Amino acid sequence: MAWYYYNRSNNGGGGGGGGAWGRLSKGLLPLLALQAASEFHRIGRKPPVTAGLLLANSLIYLRPAFVDRLLPTLYEVSFNPHLILKHGDLKRFFLSPFYHVGDAHLFYNMTSLLWKGIQLETSMGSPRFASMVAALLCMSQGITLVLARSLLLFFDYEAAYYNQFSVGFSGVLFAMKVVLNAHSDEYAYLHGIVVPARHAAWAELILIQLFVPGVSFLGHLGGILAGLLYLHLRGSYTAVDPLTVFIKKAFDFVSWPVRVIRRFLSFQRPRTSGRGRVGSSQATAVPSGIWRCPTCTYDNSSRVDVCEMCSTARRGSGFTPLRQYNRTGDLSTEEVRRRRIERFGG
Fold first, then answer.
1. Phi then psi dihedrals of residue 164, to 5 deg
2. pLDDT 10s digits, 61-87
3. How far apart, in whole angstroms, are the C-alpha atoms of residue 221 and residue 254?
4. Using DSSP, how many helices (H) and how many strands (E) does the chain show?
5. What structural domains and CATH numbers belong to the chain?
6. What Pfam families does the database record attribute to this sequence (predicted)?
7. pLDDT at 277
8. Residues classed as catalytic
């Protein structure tokens, strides 16, 4: 899950992708779609925020005609500390994580998001997960900006500040990895190396930097530090953060038509035709508008005074039976069966 960077001197264009990422197989996108469909079909509760993030990143990369004219080019949003601070270019700050430079870049980031997002969102809930992603995105971008500026001021290292243009969602993914494994006692396997899951992000940071060309070390490091900062703030702040409350209210507002439709479809009207059910002879709660026959336990509508199953007259509750029948215990099983046949058997 690389946060790809390129040098302005080598890539001055404004289009889609380039470099090693862009030359890899185009067959990865159908594989990504198949994997996402399989995972969402497998789980019971569908995580909407994870699905929305996958869709947003994919649409921005594919740039279909209905959104192409609305989207800035990759070069216009690439993360560059110098341009962000000099011109206050906030679109580079907020939009660069959603851009990718090739099929492989998008595939590896989105498969990682799919796995981490499902686990975190199903355990945290969608509003809190959305709040966390927003916070991690801002913190990881901000920390990366501070790191690049610090390298220039204290070590006179200009490349990360002036020349590198970075895009990709993996800064947020590194932060999510830190949050996901914060309290884990398990072990993770990274390229054949077994490491404690709590430290997997640090090991992955080093391994990716060694074996994957064209990745941003500062972007990944900023993600890890953002994850640690988020855990610290969450541990010291016990109340629900305002952003989570706002997102929850937005979720409730947007989803209320769906809840109304579901409630309408599952609503069952009280029976009025008398076609009830045969219940238990034990004393149980009977719905309003229904009376239970003391002989055969059939549930009848309150509109009828004679049991539709065995013809036993209704007694009590101020009603006078239309015909007088034997008392409850006087009818034998054979008599009840005979009356049912007479009434419903023709």
1. -90, 130
2. 999 999 999 999 999 999 999 999 999
3. 36
4. 14, 6
5. 4-255 (1.20.1540.10), 290-344 (no CATH)
6. Rhomboid, Zn_ribbon_RanBP
7. 45
8. 170, 220
